Amino acid sequence: MQPTSNGRPNPRTQGYQTFENEGTSIQFCPEEIENLRNNSRQDIDKEPSESNTSPNRNQQTAVGSPEPSSFNNRYEELMKGEQCPTCRGLGRIPRHDAEQLVALIPVGDKRLKPRRTAQWVMLSVLVCSVIASLILFFLFPRNVRAISNQPYLEPLELNINVTSQYVFVSFVNRYNFSNENYVPVTVTGVTMAVQYDMRVLNKVVNTTNLIIPHLSLKEYYVAMNLTLSGDEGYLAKFCNDPRRWVHDMFMQFDLTANYSYLGHTEQTTLTTYQHVSCGNDTKSHSWG
Protein backbone atom coordinates (compact mmCIF):
# COMPACT_ATOMS: atom_id res chain seq x y z
CA MET A 1 0.00 0.00 0.00
CA GLN A 2 1.46 3.32 -1.06
CA PRO A 3 1.00 6.19 1.32
CA THR A 4 -0.36 9.43 0.16
CA SER A 5 0.98 12.84 0.86
CA ASN A 6 -0.90 13.00 4.18
CA GLY A 7 0.42 9.64 5.38
CA ARG A 8 -2.64 7.53 4.43
CA PRO A 9 -2.63 4.75 1.83
CA ASN A 10 -3.77 5.69 -1.64
CA PRO A 11 -7.13 4.00 -2.36
CA ARG A 12 -6.52 3.98 -6.09
CA THR A 13 -3.31 1.95 -5.78
CA GLN A 14 -4.59 -0.44 -3.06
CA GLY A 15 -7.84 -1.66 -4.79
CA TYR A 16 -10.30 0.61 -2.98
CA GLN A 17 -13.67 1.14 -4.63
CA THR A 18 -15.62 4.36 -4.38
CA PHE A 19 -19.49 4.39 -4.21
CA GLU A 20 -21.42 7.60 -4.66
CA ASN A 21 -24.94 7.99 -3.31
CA GLU A 22 -26.82 11.32 -3.48
CA GLY A 23 -23.65 13.37 -3.72
CA THR A 24 -21.81 11.48 -0.94
CA SER A 25 -18.76 9.36 -1.75
CA ILE A 26 -18.01 6.24 0.32
CA GLN A 27 -14.81 4.24 -0.15
CA PHE A 28 -14.53 0.55 0.77
CA CYS A 29 -11.48 -1.63 0.69
CA PRO A 30 -11.71 -5.10 -0.91
CA GLU A 31 -11.90 -6.86 2.47
CA GLU A 32 -14.88 -4.77 3.55
CA ILE A 33 -16.68 -5.42 0.28
CA GLU A 34 -16.16 -9.17 0.69
CA ASN A 35 -17.53 -9.07 4.27
CA LEU A 36 -20.64 -7.25 3.13
CA ARG A 37 -21.26 -9.86 0.45
CA ASN A 38 -20.86 -12.73 2.91
CA ASN A 39 -23.30 -11.12 5.36
CA SER A 40 -25.87 -10.69 2.59
CA ARG A 41 -25.60 -14.38 1.66
CA GLN A 42 -26.06 -15.41 5.29
CA ASP A 43 -29.20 -13.26 5.62
CA ILE A 44 -30.67 -14.82 2.49
CA ASP A 45 -29.95 -18.34 3.77
CA LYS A 46 -31.60 -17.59 7.13
CA GLU A 47 -34.90 -16.37 5.68
CA PRO A 48 -36.35 -19.80 4.74
CA SER A 49 -35.44 -21.30 8.10
CA GLU A 50 -36.97 -18.39 9.99
CA SER A 51 -40.15 -18.65 7.96
CA ASN A 52 -40.45 -22.35 8.87
CA THR A 53 -39.66 -21.98 12.53
CA SER A 54 -41.68 -18.78 13.15
CA PRO A 55 -44.94 -18.84 11.14
CA ASN A 56 -46.66 -16.59 13.63
CA ARG A 57 -44.10 -13.90 13.03
CA ASN A 58 -44.92 -13.75 9.30
CA GLN A 59 -48.63 -13.65 10.02
CA GLN A 60 -48.36 -10.77 12.42
CA THR A 61 -45.52 -8.65 10.99
CA ALA A 62 -45.05 -7.87 7.29
CA VAL A 63 -41.57 -7.42 5.70
CA GLY A 64 -40.37 -3.94 6.28
CA SER A 65 -43.26 -3.14 8.64
CA PRO A 66 -42.79 -1.94 12.19
CA GLU A 67 -43.12 -4.30 15.11
CA PRO A 68 -46.56 -4.49 16.80
CA SER A 69 -44.99 -3.21 20.01
CA SER A 70 -44.23 0.08 18.28
CA PHE A 71 -47.97 0.83 17.96
CA ASN A 72 -49.84 2.35 20.89
CA ASN A 73 -53.28 1.57 19.51
CA ARG A 74 -55.14 -1.41 20.90
CA TYR A 75 -57.08 -3.74 18.61
CA GLU A 76 -59.89 -6.00 19.72
CA GLU A 77 -60.25 -9.24 17.80
CA LEU A 78 -63.68 -10.03 16.44
CA MET A 79 -65.18 -13.47 16.89
CA LYS A 80 -65.46 -15.46 13.67
CA GLY A 81 -63.37 -12.87 11.85
CA GLU A 82 -60.66 -12.86 9.24
CA GLN A 83 -57.17 -11.49 9.39
CA CYS A 84 -57.16 -7.92 8.16
CA PRO A 85 -55.20 -7.88 4.86
CA THR A 86 -54.30 -4.20 5.13
CA CYS A 87 -53.74 -3.92 8.89
CA ARG A 88 -50.23 -5.46 8.76
CA GLY A 89 -51.32 -8.30 11.00
CA LEU A 90 -52.40 -6.04 13.86
CA GLY A 91 -56.13 -6.59 13.78
CA ARG A 92 -59.06 -8.65 12.57
CA ILE A 93 -62.13 -7.72 10.60
CA PRO A 94 -65.52 -9.39 10.05
CA ARG A 95 -65.42 -12.29 7.63
CA HIS A 96 -67.82 -10.68 5.15
CA ASP A 97 -65.45 -7.69 4.86
CA ALA A 98 -62.34 -9.79 4.13
CA GLU A 99 -62.42 -8.98 0.41
CA GLN A 100 -62.59 -5.24 1.02
CA LEU A 101 -59.83 -2.80 1.82
CA VAL A 102 -59.76 -1.52 5.38
CA ALA A 103 -58.32 1.90 6.10
CA LEU A 104 -56.87 2.85 9.46
CA ILE A 105 -57.77 6.47 10.18
CA PRO A 106 -56.16 8.34 13.08
CA VAL A 107 -58.45 9.41 15.87
CA GLY A 108 -57.60 13.05 15.25
CA ASP A 109 -58.56 12.88 11.57
CA LYS A 110 -61.09 15.55 10.60
CA ARG A 111 -63.11 13.01 8.65
CA LEU A 112 -64.16 11.39 11.92
CA LYS A 113 -65.55 14.64 13.28
CA PRO A 114 -69.21 15.45 12.54
CA ARG A 115 -69.66 18.28 10.09
CA ARG A 116 -72.42 20.73 10.86
CA THR A 117 -74.50 18.07 12.54
CA ALA A 118 -76.34 20.58 14.70
CA GLN A 119 -77.14 22.75 11.69
CA TRP A 120 -78.52 19.80 9.73
CA VAL A 121 -80.60 18.64 12.69
CA MET A 122 -82.03 22.13 13.20
CA LEU A 123 -82.76 22.44 9.48
CA SER A 124 -84.55 19.06 9.46
CA VAL A 125 -86.63 20.03 12.49
CA LEU A 126 -87.49 23.36 10.88
CA VAL A 127 -88.54 21.76 7.59
CA CYS A 128 -90.66 19.15 9.40
CA SER A 129 -92.28 21.88 11.51
CA VAL A 130 -93.12 23.95 8.44
CA ILE A 131 -94.61 20.94 6.64
CA ALA A 132 -96.65 19.96 9.72
CA SER A 133 -97.86 23.55 10.13
CA LEU A 134 -98.94 23.72 6.50
CA ILE A 135 -100.80 20.42 6.78
CA LEU A 136 -102.58 21.59 9.93
CA PHE A 137 -103.37 24.95 8.34
CA PHE A 138 -104.98 23.47 5.23
CA LEU A 139 -106.71 20.52 6.92
CA PHE A 140 -107.85 22.28 10.10
CA PRO A 141 -111.70 22.17 10.21
CA ARG A 142 -113.39 25.49 9.56
CA ASN A 143 -116.99 26.65 9.57
CA VAL A 144 -119.57 25.93 6.92
CA ARG A 145 -122.17 28.66 7.31
CA ALA A 146 -125.73 28.92 6.06
CA ILE A 147 -126.48 32.45 4.89
CA SER A 148 -129.74 34.07 3.89
CA ASN A 149 -130.50 37.56 2.65
CA GLN A 150 -134.09 37.00 3.84
CA PRO A 151 -135.84 37.51 0.51
CA TYR A 152 -139.48 38.40 0.20
CA LEU A 153 -141.27 35.12 -0.55
CA GLU A 154 -143.99 35.28 -3.16
CA PRO A 155 -146.23 32.28 -3.79
CA LEU A 156 -145.65 30.06 -6.81
CA GLU A 157 -149.08 28.55 -6.35
CA LEU A 158 -151.99 29.99 -4.36
CA ASN A 159 -155.49 28.76 -3.61
CA ILE A 160 -157.86 30.71 -1.35
CA ASN A 161 -161.34 29.67 -0.18
CA VAL A 162 -162.79 32.32 2.06
CA THR A 163 -166.00 30.37 2.70
CA SER A 164 -164.16 27.26 3.88
CA GLN A 165 -161.44 29.32 5.48
CA TYR A 166 -158.79 27.46 3.53
CA VAL A 167 -155.54 28.73 2.00
CA PHE A 168 -152.88 26.74 0.11
CA VAL A 169 -149.66 28.55 -0.72
CA SER A 170 -146.43 27.21 -2.24
CA PHE A 171 -143.08 29.03 -2.38
CA VAL A 172 -139.32 28.40 -2.52
CA ASN A 173 -136.84 29.75 0.00
CA ARG A 174 -133.25 30.43 -1.05
CA TYR A 175 -130.12 29.96 1.08
CA ASN A 176 -126.39 30.29 0.52
CA PHE A 177 -123.79 27.92 1.97
CA SER A 178 -120.29 29.27 2.53
CA ASN A 179 -117.39 26.83 2.67
CA GLU A 180 -114.40 28.32 4.50
CA ASN A 181 -112.35 25.12 4.34
CA TYR A 182 -109.51 24.28 1.95
CA VAL A 183 -111.25 21.01 1.05
CA PRO A 184 -114.63 20.44 -0.67
CA VAL A 185 -117.75 20.08 1.47
CA THR A 186 -120.93 18.17 0.61
CA VAL A 187 -124.31 19.28 1.95
CA THR A 188 -126.16 16.01 2.44
CA GLY A 189 -129.57 17.23 3.61
CA VAL A 190 -131.59 20.19 4.85
CA THR A 191 -134.58 20.45 7.19
CA MET A 192 -136.69 23.63 7.19
CA ALA A 193 -139.52 24.39 9.62
CA VAL A 194 -141.99 27.32 9.36
CA GLN A 195 -143.58 28.97 12.39
CA TYR A 196 -146.34 31.55 12.53
CA ASP A 197 -147.81 32.95 15.70
CA MET A 198 -145.69 30.51 17.77
CA ARG A 199 -147.10 27.52 15.89
CA VAL A 200 -145.24 25.21 13.53
CA LEU A 201 -147.14 25.26 10.24
CA ASN A 202 -145.01 22.76 8.35
CA LYS A 203 -141.62 21.05 8.19
CA VAL A 204 -139.93 19.81 5.03
CA VAL A 205 -136.79 17.78 4.33
CA ASN A 206 -134.63 18.22 1.24
CA THR A 207 -132.09 15.42 0.64
CA THR A 208 -130.47 16.96 -2.43
CA ASN A 209 -126.67 16.73 -2.22
CA LEU A 210 -124.73 19.88 -2.96
CA ILE A 211 -120.93 19.85 -3.38
CA ILE A 212 -119.30 23.12 -2.37
CA PRO A 213 -115.69 23.63 -3.53
CA HIS A 214 -113.08 25.01 -1.16
CA LEU A 215 -113.37 28.68 -0.23
CA SER A 216 -116.54 29.15 -2.24
CA LEU A 217 -120.24 29.99 -1.93
CA LYS A 218 -123.21 28.14 -3.44
CA GLU A 219 -126.99 28.53 -3.40
CA TYR A 220 -129.44 25.98 -2.07
CA TYR A 221 -133.20 26.01 -2.64
CA VAL A 222 -135.88 24.54 -0.37
CA ALA A 223 -139.50 24.27 -1.50
CA MET A 224 -142.31 24.65 1.00
CA ASN A 225 -146.08 24.02 0.84
CA LEU A 226 -148.31 25.65 3.47
CA THR A 227 -151.91 24.90 4.24
CA LEU A 228 -153.78 27.40 6.39
CA SER A 229 -156.96 25.94 7.84
CA GLY A 230 -158.58 25.24 11.17
CA ASP A 231 -157.07 27.55 13.74
CA GLU A 232 -155.32 29.46 10.95
CA GLY A 233 -158.41 29.51 8.70
CA TYR A 234 -159.16 33.10 9.61
CA LEU A 235 -156.12 34.09 7.52
CA ALA A 236 -158.07 33.31 4.35
CA LYS A 237 -159.87 36.64 4.68
CA PHE A 238 -156.60 38.54 4.91
CA CYS A 239 -154.98 36.60 2.06
CA ASN A 240 -157.95 37.44 -0.18
CA ASP A 241 -157.53 41.18 0.45
CA PRO A 242 -155.82 42.82 -2.56
CA ARG A 243 -153.86 45.20 -0.37
CA ARG A 244 -150.35 43.91 0.01
CA TRP A 245 -149.78 45.01 3.55
CA VAL A 246 -152.88 43.03 4.56
CA HIS A 247 -151.95 39.66 3.00
CA ASP A 248 -148.28 39.94 4.03
CA MET A 249 -147.38 37.52 6.84
CA PHE A 250 -144.22 37.59 8.92
CA MET A 251 -142.96 34.02 9.52
CA GLN A 252 -140.04 32.32 11.24
CA PHE A 253 -137.88 29.84 9.31
CA ASP A 254 -135.62 27.39 11.14
CA LEU A 255 -133.01 25.71 8.93
CA THR A 256 -130.83 22.73 9.91
CA ALA A 257 -128.25 21.52 7.37
CA ASN A 258 -126.02 18.44 7.49
CA TYR A 259 -122.69 18.51 5.67
CA SER A 260 -119.69 16.19 5.48
CA TYR A 261 -115.99 16.57 4.72
CA LEU A 262 -112.78 14.69 5.53
CA GLY A 263 -114.80 11.65 6.57
CA HIS A 264 -117.02 13.18 9.25
CA THR A 265 -120.44 14.88 9.37
CA GLU A 266 -121.44 18.12 11.08
CA GLN A 267 -124.44 20.42 11.31
CA THR A 268 -125.13 24.09 10.89
CA THR A 269 -128.32 25.97 11.78
CA LEU A 270 -129.89 29.25 10.79
CA THR A 271 -133.03 31.08 11.91
CA THR A 272 -134.52 33.83 9.78
CA TYR A 273 -137.67 35.99 9.86
CA GLN A 274 -139.11 36.64 6.44
CA HIS A 275 -142.17 38.19 4.83
CA VAL A 276 -144.45 35.77 2.97
CA SER A 277 -147.20 36.89 0.64
CA CYS A 278 -150.39 34.85 0.58
CA GLY A 279 -152.34 37.36 -1.52
CA ASN A 280 -153.71 37.25 -5.04
CA ASP A 281 -151.51 40.03 -6.39
CA THR A 282 -149.31 37.34 -7.96
CA LYS A 283 -150.05 34.04 -9.65
CA SER A 284 -153.16 32.97 -7.83
CA HIS A 285 -156.60 31.56 -8.10
CA SER A 286 -159.40 32.36 -5.65
CA TRP A 287 -163.01 31.42 -5.36
CA GLY A 288 -165.85 31.68 -2.88
From TrEMBL:
Report keywords, A-Z.
Membrane, Transmembrane, Transmembrane helix
Transmembrane protein 106 N-terminal domain residues are 83-117
Annotated InterPro entries = TMEM106 (IPR009790), TMEM106_C (IPR048509), TMEM106_N (IPR048511)
Q: Name one Pfam family in it.
A: TMEM106_N
Instruction: Provide the Transmembrane protein 106 C-terminal domain boundaries.
Output: 160-282
Q: Where is this region: Disordered?
A: 1-73
Protein family (similarity comment): Belongs to the TMEM106 family.
This chain's protein is named Transmembrane protein 106B
